[in-house]
Structure formats: C-alpha cells, structure tokens
Amino acid sequence: MKKNLLMWDQTLFKDIEVFDIDFIPGQFDYRDTQIERLAFAVKPALMGGKVLNTICRGIPGTGKTTSVRKFFEEVEETTKKIIPIHINCQIDSSEYAIFSRIYTRLTKNSAPPGGTAFKALIDMVAKYIAKEEIIPLICLDDANYLIYNKEFNNILYAILRIHEVYENVSLGVILVISDPDILMEEVMDARVASVFRYETINFEPYSAAEVADILTQRTIQGLYPNVISSEQMDQIVDRTMRCGDVRIGLDLIKRSVMEAEINARLGVTDEDIQKAFSASRDMHLSGTINTLAADEMLILRQIVKMTDPDKFITTGDVRRALPEDGPKLTRFNEIMEKFDNIHLISMGYANKGEGRKRYVNLRYDKDRVEKLLRKKQE
Questions:
Q1: What does the DSSP 8-state code read for residue 223?
Q2: Residue 352 or residue 52, greater confidence
Q3: Is the pLDDT of residue 2 over 70?
Q4: 353-to-157, 314, 318, 346, 358 alpha-carbon distances in Å
Q5: What does the DSSP 8-state code read for residue 5?
Q6: SS3 call for 55
Q7: How far apart are CA 81 and CA 108, in angstroms?
Q8: I need a surface site. Which of 16, 126, 194, 205 has the fewest CB within 10 A?
Q9: Pairing of strands 345-349, 358-362
Q10: What angle separates helix 95-107 from helix 152-160, to the nearest 10 degrees?
Q11: What is the pLDDT averaged over residues 179-196?
C-alpha cells in the first residue's frame, strides 16, 4: 500500500519565490489603469519635457509597490534616458541615505567615500546626471515613514530644487503612501508645496474575487497540483480579506505548504493553515519592529513592560520610567507620535478635569510583541 508521504528529496513547491513579498509576477492583473497613469506621468520626459510627479496611495497590500516595479521594468526596456530608482524609506530614511542610494544606483559605484559632506554628495549626483544626460525617476516607497521621522520635507525639497542649482538637471518623483490618515496638504511645508505639483493615483483594496484570482494564479505558478484544495483556498481568501492585505494570503500559502513539508505530507491540512495564519498575522508587526531605531526600541520595550490590562499608563509614566540617558522630551514626543501613526499604539487625552494626561494603549497583544522583540534582540 502506497503511503501518502513526501519523500526526503521531494518538495511541494515548483517555485517558492513566487510567494515572496518582493516577487514581481509575469502576469499582474487588476492594476492596468494605475500603471497606465504612471506611464502618462513619464511620457513628457521622453519628448524633452519633465516627469509629472505622482503619489500612489492605498492601504498596505493593494499592489502599489508591485505596480511601480512592474512599470519600472517597462521603462528600462523602453528607454535609456530615464533611470528608475526604487528606494525603501523604511530602510533609507534620511537625506544622506537617500542621496547615497541614488548615487550608487546611478553610478554603479559603492557608497560615497566616508566623510563626504551632503552638499558634496548632491554635487556628485548632479554632475553625473548632467554628464550622462539622464533623468532619474525616484520612487520613495513607504514615504509615510519619512513623514513619521520628520524628514519628508527636507528630502523632497533637496530632490525638487536640484534643478535650481544645477542647470539641465531634474529628477522625477513617485511617492508611495500606505497610511490613509496622512493629508498631504497638512504634511508639506510652504517651500515644498510651492514646487511639488503632483498627480494622485489611488489603489483601492482588492475585492474577494480579485484576491482569489491573484492567489490562485500564484498557486498554479508556485505549487505542484493538488497541494491545496479549493475549499482550503476559500479559507485562505477569507482570512486574507479579514486582514485586508493580499501579502498575508501569499505568506499564508507559503507557510501552510512549509508546514505540510515539515510533516512529510503531500497536501496541506486545515491545521497547517491555522498554524501558518498565526505566524502570518505577525508579518506586518515584525516588519515594523525591524525598522525601528535603537531609541525607538527602548521606548517600545518600556511600553510593553508597563502594559497591564488592569492599569492605565500615560506618556508621562513611560517617559519617567526610561533611563536618564534615554531620549529627550522632543525626541520622545516624536517617537510616541510615530508609534501612533504606524499603529503600534493608540493615544488619547484624558477627560476634562484631568489636565493634559495622555493615555497610551498597545494595539497588539503584549505577549506577541514581547516575542518579536526578543527575536530581534537575538
């Protein structure tokens, strides 16, 4: 009798990379309109004009980054005049870091020599652009992190004003914003607003039918037949819709199949999906924690330590509990606002009669956050 077991040298994946977050599929549906609008914004530059700046807006997991990357592939195949440069602002979030990234992508050199001043770095970038007669098209992905870190206006100003100092040099900008609460007219200061003219491209959430089709197409491409049943795919689509992020669905499929492989099964079980879902839910939280600076980690650990379902904590309580060499008041307030903006915590003022006390609530389960913090520390 043949056992329904996976042999040691077998795998259920035809191509496991299909389920990676940064994978760019050959077939990318439901975002043709958005990609066409990106192309419309770049078209003037091909005829001697300037790129129209754009902002791609939508909640996480609505295809913004993949659309830009797919569009960048088309640009690279079409012209050598426009040089697409994708920058992850969760990783590069300062003026110097972003212009260093632009420099390395343009010149194919290593990072600028240590000690290079920021003005000198801009000069190096501008001279290269002028010499090669190119137009860099800069995508600042997850630009909302620049806003949280109070770097947004300085960076955008440096990019947009470069043509005023260096003749015949200009850069196009695509901003990707994943926070629906951000209002650009409130974020931009006057010096940026006066020069930053932009088109907005909206990315609406995928429907259940669209999510089902996207996940099914990836499954056909990435798995051997009959690894996941149609009923199980319905479960995965349902969980994905509840989370509101198609990336959760991709990760859930990948983890479910890996669970089946660990147990040497030829197909996924409902238990595999349940185990995988517990891990997939932490994907966004883990990604957020991994981007935090040392002083931000210090404050988050303190908030987690103080969180108690039977007690209220205030911003003042948190700050007083920090070590003496912890962040000063201004930086502390910036970090707390950032945590609120990226939905790690929620903050609210007390009722009348209690002064200006501001209460702090951890948005995630304390044990889950503690586990991820320990993992980052290891």
A1: B
A2: 52
A3: no
A4: 43, 15, 21, 21, 13
A5: B
A6: strand
A7: 16
A8: 194
A9: antiparallel
A10: 40
A11: 91
